[in-house]
Amino acid sequence: MSVVEQPALRVVGRELVRHDAVEKVTGRTRYAADVEQPRRLHAALRRSDVAHGRLRRVDVTPALAVPGVVGAYTAADVPNNVLWAPVPGQLPGTGAERSRANMLAEDVVRFDGEPIALVAAETEDAAAAGVEAVVVEIDPLPVLDDPLRSLDEDVPVLHEGGNLLASWEFEEGDVDAALVGAAAVVDRTHRCQAVDHAYLETEAGTAWIDADGVVVVRASTQVVEHHRTLARFLGVEDNRVRVIAPYVGGGFGGKEDLTVEPYLAFVAHRTRRPVRMTWSRQESLRARAKRHPAVMHYVTAADAGGRLVAQDIDLVLDGGAYAQLSAAVLLWSAMSSMGPYRCANVRVRARVVYTNNTPSSAMRGFGAQQVAFAYENQMDALAAALGIDPLALRRRNFIEAGDTLATGQVIPTHVALPELTAAVEERLGELPQPSGPARKVGRGYACNLQSYGFNVWMGDWSSAWVGLEADGGLTIRIGVPDIGAGQASSLVQIAAEVVGVEPERIVIHIGDSTLTPLTGRTSSSRQLYMSGNAVLEAAERLADDLRGVAAMVLEVDADAVELAAGEARAGEDALPLAAAYAACIARSVPVQQLATFHAPTGPRWEARPDWRGRIVPDFAYSCHGVEVEVDTETGRVQILRYVAAHDVGRAINPQSVRGQIEGGATMGIGQALYERVVFEDARNVTRKLANYLVPTAVEAPEIETIVLESGEGLGPFHSRGVGEPPVSPPAPAIAAALRDATGATFTATPFAPERVLATLAAHGVGR
Amino acid sequence: MAAELELGFELNGTAVRCGAEPHWTLLRVLRDGIGQTDVKYGCGEGVCGACTVLLDGTAVSSCLLFAPQVAGRRVETVAGLGSPEEMHPLQREFVERGGVQCGFCTPGMVLGGLEAVALDLCGSPEEIRHSLSGNICRCTGYRGIVESVAAYASLPPTDRG
Prior knowledge:
The complex is a heterodimer. Chain A is 25% helix and 26% strand. Chain A is α+β, with helices and mostly antiparallel strands. Chain A folds into three domains: 19-29 and 461-598, Aldehyde Oxidoreductase, domain 4, CATH 3.30.365.10; 41-141 and 203-278, Aldehyde oxidase/xanthine dehydrogenase, a/b hammerhead (Aldehyde Oxidoreductase, domain 3, Alpha-Beta Complex), CATH 3.90.1170; 294-455 and 605-762, Aldehyde Oxidoreductase, domain 4 (2-Layer Sandwich). In chain A, strands 3-7-1-14-11-12-13 form a seven-stranded mixed β-sheet, with helices on both faces. The longest helix of chain A has 28 residues, at 527-554. Chain A is globular. The two termini of chain A are 46 Å apart. Helix content of chain B is 30%, strand content 16%. In chain B, strands 2-1-5-3-4 form a five-stranded mixed β-sheet, sandwiched between helices. The mean pLDDT of chain B is 96. The chains are: A alpha+beta, B alpha+beta. At the A-B interface, helix 1 and helix 15 of A face helix 1, helix 2, helix 3, helix 4 and helix 5 of B.
């Protein structure tokens, strides 16, 4: 379905086979841990076994005595072990105002699993023995594990300046007055748990010193621009470190922060030898950053006609032990917390705090996911309170293009939620009967908005290089890391469309901070938007030159020349692109183009509650509908049908788009029903994949996707980002379906059997 | 440092010999001893299926087998099935039906699917899903994978490679 007619295209919009898929399915792709080098060392980390404590003694001498150990290092060995960064978004006089990142703990450990010492050895076994031999003595300190207590007087202060990591606040209208006159008020607290990204490829990489003395780190990462941070740790200039991102075995935000890279860079720099580090699955589960646990108190009010009159929102996110990307995640939570709904009276108070739990940071949805659970739960409860159909209530409140949110953000493009909700409703049809007497069936819907692109004051840009080869093939150079969503192959498709080279004749070089034009991180659903526009512009410039030269050769107007199927054609006459290349060279016309796409920019958010303005370029919208059956005796929830409708603007590769929607919805379902990282006194006890329940093919339902092409996005060919949007609606949609089935209200994820039974019992349902 | 074991087995149709320590897993022998990097480390617990190989035709988690257990036996990995130029029919289905995204689960998933079809455990989409439940994919949502295996299972046995 589509909102506006779009021109038919030659390559864009086709379900082309992804070039990387062929390499991957035959086992040829060299992931981060798949390259070997002579005299390579193996590096491993000694981690803290306590969640909070003062380091009394760290002695690496016994490790150095282990046969095969080449080096053993502590914080004192790292040139710049501690890096500080300003924390954006805080109100004046509050919070720590700057954040700390350290390679290895010094003086204090703040979470269980924090790296304390680094060992480099000739073999994996020697490295493991060396790690064991390091002597670590820690005086335990009281732990802080409850984010709701982080700002109390009597708790440990984890960072200088206090436990408030960041805050965002804004208020529009008069919330208190609006609540007084409302026909229905829903006052609830919603909770989301910590979850792990659980990509199949754990954190891994190699590093070496190249011929120019540059430190090269080839690692599984979403960000090659980390070369700058690595340079700071090492105390060298930025251009002395190079980061290469090979094809990544899944990212989902978990490889946006540094993981293995600093340790690899340090060992290579220090020993001048190649080195590899691979985090075990158990290390990855224990110590790498999680999704922010969130406690979200909402008071939402509507008039008798079902129009929202007030949203009073208080968010507390658990940032864990270090800041990482928490301040930005909180901004995404805060700006998305009102949902895709109009409301004149809004008050948002959002805070992220330090605890001794595993650090929290980027995860698909980036803070906009948790609030979707809260605002959609609220909409459902309001609908019930007013006796209005849940979708009808939403339709009375959807934002539209041109609306201004309480943040001051203007909605720049079409909001297709009316079309999306209608499509899902129509697809679902009749609700089936329960399969047994103790079972109940129900249906639920959820909508969401998710920005794509960075915030506008970051001055976001992305560059791409496109060059024609003498034989008529095409080469693309672009710094984008491909984390599995088809980032590279979509860019090939765009270039093929514009330059008229067949996709099989295009080679794309990606993910190198030194040799490919930089594009910024693969995060925020931004790569198709940003890098796609950069490739589009470079390809269009090249195509303009090719058409101009071909026109001279063919003696026609440039407008008459069409680039397709490897040739420049004007009516019956055609010039193969190899000949066009020669003609360009003969006329000193460039056959390569470097283009930079700049996202819209705007003034920086000021740390005062009355600041208003644009925060992000645009949003993507979706609606999911689900039918569930719940067994009131066992608490088991089964998904009977699942429909996901998304406005993607335009599908560059429909297969990749569908893959993102199916995979994102499945991940969201896993987080809604099964997945949780469990902390006991701030110790992360979810240390085995066997204890972390990722959906298998049995649990994952068939996702019925509906792709709407509104032609309204800001990306190439009017596309929108689609990586993150599908992960948010599953939890609130399933909660709504459970309420529809049982009458019980589910305000905390995951809806695991014991919680379902407890919730049903509290509502007097079932036994 | 000489390895304690001199291990011999058949890998993708070729006899190989490799030094190994007795506590090494087959996964480690394949990846670090031989350089067979199409076999992936995913968890080391036998949960995710990324390290799946065929041992005498049976799909096993190579992270759960010790090196001495494979002496003299036949090991097949996804790279032995086909090449980019000449893909195995099941590999081709994965590529064409969106069964591959990040690709890290793919080698194990293809071998798991191959065994499921060989054992005739692919009669319905539900049966395929159960047959593949030892292989985790975090990217796709499984639809493309299940359809790939179903399409391959529906081929006449003579066309299954």
